[in-house]
Design a protein that fits this description.
The protein has four domains: about 90 residues, Rossmann fold; about 55 residues, 2-Layer Sandwich (Dna Ligase, domain 1); about 130 residues, ATP-grasp fold, B domain (D-amino Acid Aminotransferase, Chain A, domain 1, 2-Layer Sandwich); about 90 residues, Phosphoribosylglycinamide synthetase, C-terminal domain (Glycinamide Ribonucleotide Synthetase, Chain A, domain 4, Alpha-Beta Complex), CATH 3.90.600.10. Helix 3 runs parallel beside helix 5 and helix 8 packs antiparallel against helix 9. The protein is built from 14 helices and 22 strands. The protein is globular, with a radius of gyration of 21 Å. The chain is α+β, with helices and mostly antiparallel strands and about 425 residues long. It binds adenosine monophosphate and glycine.
């Protein structure tokens, strides 16, 4: 079978890496891909925004399974387009992806189904939203309704900060139409964890839990990024808690989506905060998480392609998934200056002393015509290592980070540190 992976981040490199190991797979393609996917797959030079050309190319190549990485093509309806051409595609429809592409939709379906989430309200009127903020004590969270490349959420410590965020979303239209609606909610306190699950529209199978780190610098200082590292499993989130989230959150949401005519097929990512009243939903994503995928898939022992095909056939109730007991830690190496401005086209040097089994999952990295792999984005790669404990995995990844280098590179030194000290 030929498999096409859509996207160009470290998440997609990890997907290609795992998919290429499946005995069911003959060839893997990535669109547009990066330097990492290019080692294992054929990269296709089509922009992610051109979904009809992507689907057209998939048909021409005889693709047997398409796997969608990022949210933008899902929200643009790439799954619906694949379905029209009869090419099996792993990823939710445009209507089902509203769980991510509209925070107002997600809030509404959670509230109607008694799924625990932050208290709050959705507004289409700037003045009503302003009144609501002024009537509530900070901290308070202001969110643009639509996709905003991870930048649409402000956890405001003061009323002024919340009002500034509201103004930027609704008046300055910083995120365009994504700011037609705004969600304002209470600030939840507690540890944050990501629980991803495979869904076939009716049945769900959870993955192992993971934690990601969003701030650029150690001790969660500095601005938010696309993610600076991750690890799995978090010691504070056991199987019983996974069972609870499945029962109270994921199963009711998947059931409600089916009942309301938008069955959810694909990966449902639930971002949670473990509050004193129990786990509450922060957000849903309609896809694999980045950088969570880089530490989750190395722990998956089962064939990912088999799981995806079972999900598409509505057969997940008969599927058993095996996970390894090893822990995994991933550290993102980013360009100096990210998430602000940064240089690109800097050669990435890998020493041959890098231990085998330490994985480099590339993101903003491309292969130049001269064969050299150079930086091309803010987050350049995720370095991951497994170990029999988180401590061992963490030591291994940091011991090896010296063997990967590019000018000005930056990484956090505290990924998974809270689990081992
Ligand atoms: P999101 O874009 O929805 O993933 O939100 C980005 C980040 O904002 C989350 O990972 C949380 O750290 C934080 N956040 C979002 N909603 C809340 C909330 N209600 N309370 C506290 N933190 C939040
Ligand atoms: N790790 C958060 C996300 O994938 O959106």
């Amino acid at each position: 079978m030929k498999v096409l992976v859509i996207g160009n981040g470290a998440r997609e490199h990890t997907l290609v890496w795992k998919i290429a190991r499946s005995p069911l797979v003959d060839d893997v393609y990535a669109v547009p891909g990066n330097a990492g996917t290019g080692k294992l797959a054929s990269n296709l030079d089509i922009p992610l925004t051109d979904i009809s050309s992507i689907v057209g190319k998939a048909r021409e190549l005889g693709i047997g399974l398409a796997v969608v990485g990022p949210e933008a093509p899902l929200a643009a309806g790439i799954t619906d387009l694949f379905n029209q051409t009869g090419i099996p595609v792993f990823g939710p429809s445009r209507a089902a992806a509203r769980l991510e592409s509209s925070k107002a939709f997600a809030r509404d379906i959670m509230q109607r189904n008694d799924v625990p989430c932050a208290s709050g309200k959705t507004f289409t009127s700037y003045s009503e939203a302003k009144k609501y903020i002024e009537a509530h004590d900070p901290p308070i969270v202001v969110k643009a309704d639509g996709l905003a490349a991870g930048k649409g959420v402000t956890v405001a410590k003061t009323v002024d900060e919340a009002l500034a965020a509201l103004h930027s979303i609704m008046k300055d239209r910083a995120f365009g139409a994504a700011g037609d609606k705004v969600v304002i909610e209470e600030c939840l306190l507690g540890k944050e964890v990501s629980l991803l699950a495979f869904s076939d529209g009716k049945n769900v199978i959870p993955m192992v839990p993971a934690c990601d780190y969003k701030r650029v610098a150690d001790d969660d200082q500095g601005p938010n990024t696309g993610g600076m590292g991750s690890y799995s499993p978090p010691g504070f989130f056991d199987q019983k808690m996974t069972g609870q989230v499945l029962k109270d959150i994921i199963t009711p949401i998947v059931g409600a989506m089916a009942k309301e005519g938008s069955p959810y097929k694909g990966v449902l990512y639930t971002g949670l905060i473990l509050t004193q009243q129990g786990p509450k939903v922060l957000e849903f994503n309609a896809r694999f998480g980045d950088p969570e995928t880089q530490v989750i898939l190395p722990r998956l022992e089962s064939d990912l392609v088999e799981i995806m095909l079972a999900a598409l056939d509505g057969r997940l109730d008969r599927k058993k998934i095996e996970w390894g007991s090893d822990a995994c830690v991933g550290v993102v190496m980013s360009s100096g200056g990210y998430p602000g401005t940064y240089r690109t086209d800097l050669p990435i040097n890998i020493s041959d002393r890098l231990e085998k089994d330490v994985n480099i999952f590339y993101a903003g990295a491309v292969k130049r015509d001269d064969g050299k792999i150079v930086t091309s984005g803010g987050r350049v790669l995720t370095l991951t290592a497994t170990g029999s404990t988180l401590k061992e995995a963490r030591e291994r990844v940091y011991r090896n980070i010296q063997y990967v280098d590019f000018e000005g590179c930056h990484f956090r030194r505290d990924i998974a540190a809270r689990e081992v000290t």
